[in-house]
Write a structure and sequence with these properties.
The structure holds two protein chains of two kinds. Chain A is α/β, with parallel strands linked by helices. Chain A has three domains: 2-178, Thiamin diphosphate (ThDP)-binding fold, Pyr/PP domains (Rossmann fold, 3-Layer(aba) Sandwich); 192-353, TPP-binding domain (Rossmann fold); 369-540, Thiamin diphosphate (ThDP)-binding fold, Pyr/PP domains (Rossmann fold). Helices cover 37% and strands 16% of the residues of chain A. In chain A, the strands form four sheets. A six-stranded parallel sheet of chain A has the order 3-2-4-5-7-6, with helices on both faces. By secondary structure, chain B is α+β, with helices and mostly antiparallel strands. The chains are: A alpha/beta, B alpha+beta. Chains A and B meet through loops of A and helix 1, helix 2 and strand 4 of B.
């Protein structure tokens, strides 16, 4: 069967079971958009290529399947670099297809030419420049294999226009042996000796903590984690990337560690004598000053990526392997700590003394952002998926939203990409149309990618957006207040410009606003009642509200600042 | 000062403590850029780098990288290199377990007055003349990095027009255990 390269690309995507592509056409990718008309694949036409990338990420984070985006060459490709870098930091499987100028023009500074494989070398797991139509099926199959196995990540396929236009005899690789990846071996065997040494450390531990990272979700090991935690009764902390990997309401869950972590989670790690890191990478936002991090703890570090082992913290037992596989091996080996009663009673006292908290709000407003999040959560159906941007609103959401199941939290962790929320929520809703999807956003973030609500409306993707509008770039404002003597530099945005209700309406969405607690509860009911079009709610929140607890950047986690109402005079 | 023990084979032209990575890669465009980019991105220092098609198959090239083991965490370098999809195998060779060789080419201006002394130096170093014209000779030395250093110093008295070195190649000494990522087509 003779196909054009463009047809072969679409057919290859179909072979991979792709149901949705997020993209925007242009000159170099034009040939591929023609056979797309005859395909079963749904194409979501975005308003900016960055939106396509974040939608693909949101789709992947909500479904566990790889997200696919397709854009043209030059600026189309550079516009999607931010989502690619974001996916790289958070190990999100993406396949990104970029158009490229014809092979005869590469290197000649042709119109809309850009060396996108060069640009993305450092932010992709791998990338391909496809030089013949015959290679297309292999490149696509290999890209999905690379994106989804081992430590997942983004893979880019750069497709020159003439390659898409030329013809090939259709074929498709049968399995990895046809992918021509002699240097890629994602499966590693467990070393039994490592497992035995881990078991010995666990048996000797008195203050162990399960430090659960995003890799636990990527490995789909949440059932294994729960079984292991419940049998051993080892306290669990779930990082920003792992919210939902262990039920929020579970008695063993101490919550999120790190710069804005729960006091008990941060302090349990600091006082721990054994950290069992599962798909976590000792990020600076978790460790604080690394030299002062968990000084008395031995470390069992489990990661599929051997380069993570020993990168930040030397492990006493470093195990390269899949989290689920290692947990199963530990279960088989019967790893059991001695009695943890003393440890738990210490932890329970920290939990009782320093719970997450915030002040009551005045009846006339403004609202407390934490109260908005708790009210949204209380009125959301079980299984609601929550996306966010980056900043204060993200931290409050990670703290106060009770994530009970995996793949319910869609956020930008490692890269900290403002503007991630709206498009990521759209992608999540496309992947899980049965679920309610809330985007909890900041006013600064919202303005970066809000135009994708046009996409949401026109494609029939009814997400809900809660803007926690404090009229500031709030996290920067918080740092300027606390560490720069309240010298506010370039952080004020205005609560009314733009008018978020009118902006939402102009994009075909329902726009709502709440300033008082009474209005808030009415508006949440109203928003929940709308299921056919996107809803945007402008929640007017207190600009002076700060995220606590907080470990100042570069400080030790011992120097955690709790909420002002919990501070003792002696502190 | 915590100065590491010197060892045989250390030369003026190598870092205080170097390490050799012999990396088998797919012979595809952009692979060298991926490796160089990785080193730049992660702040690893490359001391020398030699690339050529491999003995195994035209599909592969061998890259011999000498890294400064003092400033560069070797485990990290190997781990990060191993993640590059085009990297097939990595031999991690400690200098004391390696046989290292380097090639040096030098073009030296000569006249009647210095020719005899130059021939003497070439003879003692084991270098050979590979090109001659009335005003200059091009000479070649293949030897250990230390012997190349010594030869280079001996040539300092001459108006050396050009002096090029390849960077070193290394294989494990016979009978040495090899630390390898043990993958790929062995």
């Amino acid at each position: 069967m003779q196909l054009t390269g463009a047809q072969a690309l679409i057919k290859s995507l179909e072979q991979q079971g792709v149901d949705t592509v997020f993209g925007l056409p242009g000159g170099a990718i034009l040939p591929v958009y023609d056979p797309l008309l005859d395909s079963s694949i749904r194409h979501i036409l975005v308003r900016h290529e960055q939106g396509a990338g974040h939608m693909a990420e949101g789709y992947s984070l909500a479904t566990g399947r790889p997200g696919v985006a397709m854009v043209t060459s030059g600026p189309g490709s550079t516009n999607i670099v931010t989502p690619i870098a974001n996916a790289h930091m958070d190990s999100t499987p993406l396949v990104v297809i970029t158009g490229q100028v014809a092979t005869s023009s590469i290197g000649l500074d042709a119109f809309q030419e850009c060396d996108i494989t060069g640009i993305t070398m450092g932010v992709t797991k791998h990338n391909f420049l496809v030089r013949t139509a015959h290679e297309i099926p292999r490149a696509v199959a290999a890209a999905f294999h690379l994106a989804t196995t081992g430590r997942p990540g983004p893979v880019l396929i750069d497709l020159p226009k003439d390659v898409a236009q030329s013809t090939m005899e259709w074929w498709y690789p049968v399995g990895p042996e046809d992918y021509d990846l002699p240097g890629y071996h994602p499966l590693v065997d467990l070393d039994e000796a490592d497992v035995e040494r881990a078991v010995a450390l666990i048996a000797a531990a008195e203050r162990p903590v399960l430090y659960v990272g995003g890799g636990t979700l990527k490995s789909r090991a949440t059932a294994e984690l729960r079984a292991f935690a419940e049998r051993t009764r080892i306290p669990v902390v779930t990082t920003l990337m792992a919210r939902g990997a262990f039920p929020h309401s579970h008695e063993l869950n101490l919550g999120m560690p790190g710069m804005h972590g729960v006091y008990a989670a941060v302090t349990a790690m600091q006082r721990s004598d054994l950290l069992i890191a599962l798909g976590a990478r000792f990020d600076d936002r978790v460790t604080g000053r690394t030299a002062a991090f968990a000084p008395g703890a031995r470390v069992i570090h489990v990661d599929i990526d051997r380069a993570e082992l020993g990168k930040i913290r030397q492990a006493d037992v470093a195990i390269q392997g899949d989290v689920g596989m290692v947990l199963r091996a530990l279960e088989t080996a019967g790893a059991n700590p001695p009695r943890l009663d003393t440890w738990w009673s210490e932890i329970r006292s920290w939990q009782a003394t320093y719970p997450l908290t915030y002040d009551d709000e005045p009846t006339e407003g403004p609202l407390r952002p934490q109260h908005v999040i708790e009210s949204l959560a209380a009125n959301a159906p079980a299984g609601t998926i929550v996306a966010s941007g980056v900043g204060q609103h993200q931290m409050w959401t990670a703290q106060f939203w009770p994530f009970e199941e995996p793949n319910s939290w869609v956020n930008s962790g490692g890269a900290g990409t403002m503007g991630f929320g709206v498009p990521a929520a759209i992608g999540a809703k496309v992947g899980r149309p049965d679920r309610t999807v809330w985007c909890i956003d900041g006013d600064g973030c919202f303005q970066m990618t809000a135009q994708e609500l046009v996409t949401a409306r026109s494609e029939g993707i009814p997400i809900k957006v809660a803007i926690l509008n404090n009229s500031y770039l709030g996290m920067v404002r918080q740092w300027q207040e606390m560490f720069y003597d309240e010298r506010y530099s370039e952080v004020y945005l205005s609560p009314d410009l733009p008018d978020y209700v009118k902006l939402a309406e102009a994009m075909g969405c329902v726009g709502l606003r709440a300033t008082t607690p009474k209005e808030m509860s009415d508006v949440i009911d109203e928003a929940n009642a709308i299921n056919d079009v996107p809803v945007v709610v402008d929640f007017r929140v207190d600009a002076s509200e700060k995220v606590f607890p907080m470990v100042p950047a570069g400080a030790s986690n011992d120097d955690i600042l709790v909420h002002p109402s919990q501070r003792k005079e002696t502190r | 000062m915590n100065t590491p023990e010197p060892f045989a084979g250390e030369t003026a032209h190598s870092p205080v403590r170097h390490h050799i990575l012999s990396v088998l890669v797919e012979n595809k465009s952009g692979v060298l850029a991926r490796i160089a980019g990785l080193f730049a991105r992660r702040g690893f220092n490359i001391y020398s780098l030699a690339v050529a098609p491999s003995e195994r198959h035209a599909r592969f090239s061998r890259i011999t990288i000498v890294v400064d083991a003092e400033s560069t965490p070797l485990e990290q370098v190997v781990g990060q290199l191993d993640k590059l999809v085009n990297v097939v195998d990595i031999w991690d060779i400690a200098p004391r377990d390696a046989v290292e060789r380097e090639l040096l080419l030098a073009t030296i201006a000569t006249d009647v007055s210095n020719r005899t002394s130059l021939l003497d130096i070439l003879g003692r170093a084991g270098a050979s003349i590979i090109d001659v014209d009335p005003g200059a000779v091009t000479v070649m030395l293949s030897g250990t990095p230390a012997s190349c250093d010594e030869f280079e110093r001996a040539l300092e008295d001459y108006s050396s027009v050009e002096l090029h070195r390849t960077g070193r190649l290394a294989v494990p000494r016979l009978g040495q255990e090899l630390t390898s990522t043990e993958r790929g087509l062995r």
